[in-house]
């Protein structure tokens, strides 16, 4: 079992670096849980708060670009830019590349700072001059060992992904404090600031400080990969469309309205359509549903929603061309009370009352799909694309609203993806454990005598197949453009995707939703692939 020795958990940044190393080398979930639980016992409270924030997606903004970090590293290590690029493409991770290339630390390096110190300094440095930022980064590089530099660089680049889910962190906390996992998950949700929030008030006090905006943790469904007959009596299940949008919650408390995404981003100002609901919804409610484009009560393609995502300023033209609605399918809070433990059969009628009373186009009720038996529902499922849905959701009527992804009560029964055969024309090395292999590919279809690129994909093959493709790329490279290799257009793959939309940004004129490799078509030659016309016909059929 992977554990950390108690003396490794020194108070400070080196203790956090040891935790990250332990999590990165752990081979099982229980090992990671033990390491996290041990850390939450021994670390300083301020550092615990920041670890909770980091592992639940909160992190300070980057203070320097990738180019600047590379430049500062090269200056300190004396590494030529071309050599750094080669190392980066081999290692596949910027933070690790810099940590490996930097010279040994200064001999007198005995500094000891906390994790919270570094993160709060990064916040302070955000608006400082480049020279001040450089001095801070270089100084600490010179006073850290390789493991600490790696973690420090992860904080600098914002790419903090080390295989720890929020659910795992919540379970580790539940081992050490007198709160249930569901309460902890709710406490750490919402709009709290790790720089000003104390661990005591976040998790140890019986009643957390009032945060009227705080959302509930989302309940997530597992994919149904078996015959639904195995679920038993169809009368015990509620069926709904699985909408293609952004999962969200609309909350009204203290006569204020809040809109949250599943990624715990507060999006109230991004969707002014919902502001009218402030006067129409009763106080003390939390609705779970889907943020999707809609007009006259009918969903529109996800591509329309993409025109709104990321916009800081919403114009009248945006509101008119890309109207957004909230398709509500569950009620988590009613009259200020948490009703998640109530069965769906009780929550749903309350939701229907609230949506009907609001009577506003920005708030739609996600319909329940009536069906008598599983065979009938399977036929209905085939109509999903005509409804602009990804398939069906199946929810046990007697089930409570749980936290995270749990097996048994919620299932997503998606339709088969769209597919098209294409030829690989470009390849690039991957990242992480695949950083030494060509695993990121660009694909093309035929357009007369030409090949037109239309998508990229980097998942769907086995390790053995990735090794075979890598060997092909190395033997059949035609040109090199930085990390990208042009290869002989000979390997044919079936590309699967969930949707297709018109796009002015792509040479092909189309953009695919969730493209991935579904299989290697070794039985096909390059002249047998699909055409650009085939893609455009798919687009016509979807519109």
UniProtKB/TrEMBL annotation:
<keyword id="KW-0233">DNA recombination</keyword>
<keyword id="KW-0460">Magnesium</keyword>
<keyword id="KW-0234">DNA repair</keyword>
<keyword id="KW-0436">Ligase</keyword>
<keyword id="KW-0479">Metal-binding</keyword>
<dbReference type="GO" id="GO:0051301">
    <property type="term" value="P:cell division"/>
</dbReference>
<dbReference type="InterPro" id="IPR012310">
    <property type="entry name" value="DNA_ligase_ATP-dep_cent"/>
</dbReference>
<dbReference type="InterPro" id="IPR050191">
    <property type="entry name" value="ATP-dep_DNA_ligase"/>
</dbReference>
<dbReference type="Pfam" id="PF01068">
    <property type="entry name" value="DNA_ligase_A_M"/>
</dbReference>
<dbReference type="InterPro" id="IPR012308">
    <property type="entry name" value="DNA_ligase_ATP-dep_N"/>
</dbReference>
<keyword id="KW-0547">Nucleotide-binding</keyword>
<dbReference type="GO" id="GO:0006260">
    <property type="term" value="P:DNA replication"/>
</dbReference>
<keyword id="KW-0067">ATP-binding</keyword>
<dbReference type="Pfam" id="PF04679">
    <property type="entry name" value="DNA_ligase_A_C"/>
</dbReference>
<keyword id="KW-0227">DNA damage</keyword>
<dbReference type="InterPro" id="IPR036599">
    <property type="entry name" value="DNA_ligase_N_sf"/>
</dbReference>
<keyword id="KW-0131">Cell cycle</keyword>
<keyword id="KW-0132">Cell division</keyword>
<dbReference type="GO" id="GO:0003677">
    <property type="term" value="F:DNA binding"/>
</dbReference>
<dbReference type="GO" id="GO:0006281">
    <property type="term" value="P:DNA repair"/>
</dbReference>
<dbReference type="InterPro" id="IPR026333">
    <property type="entry name" value="ATP_dep_DNA_lig_pp_1105_fam"/>
</dbReference>
<feature type="domain" description="ATP-dependent DNA ligase family profile">
    <location>
        <begin position="317"/>
        <end position="447"/>
    </location>
</feature>
<dbReference type="InterPro" id="IPR016059">
    <property type="entry name" value="DNA_ligase_ATP-dep_CS"/>
</dbReference>
<dbReference type="InterPro" id="IPR012340">
    <property type="entry name" value="NA-bd_OB-fold"/>
</dbReference>
<dbReference type="InterPro" id="IPR012309">
    <property type="entry name" value="DNA_ligase_ATP-dep_C"/>
</dbReference>
<protein>
    <recommendedName>
        <fullName>DNA ligase (ATP)</fullName>
        <ecNumber>6.5.1.1</ecNumber>
    </recommendedName>
</protein>
<dbReference type="GO" id="GO:0003910">
    <property type="term" value="F:DNA ligase (ATP) activity"/>
</dbReference>
<dbReference type="GO" id="GO:0046872">
    <property type="term" value="F:metal ion binding"/>
</dbReference>
<dbReference type="Pfam" id="PF04675">
    <property type="entry name" value="DNA_ligase_A_N"/>
</dbReference>
<dbReference type="GO" id="GO:0005524">
    <property type="term" value="F:ATP binding"/>
</dbReference>
<dbReference type="GO" id="GO:0006310">
    <property type="term" value="P:DNA recombination"/>
</dbReference>
<keyword id="KW-0235">DNA replication</keyword>
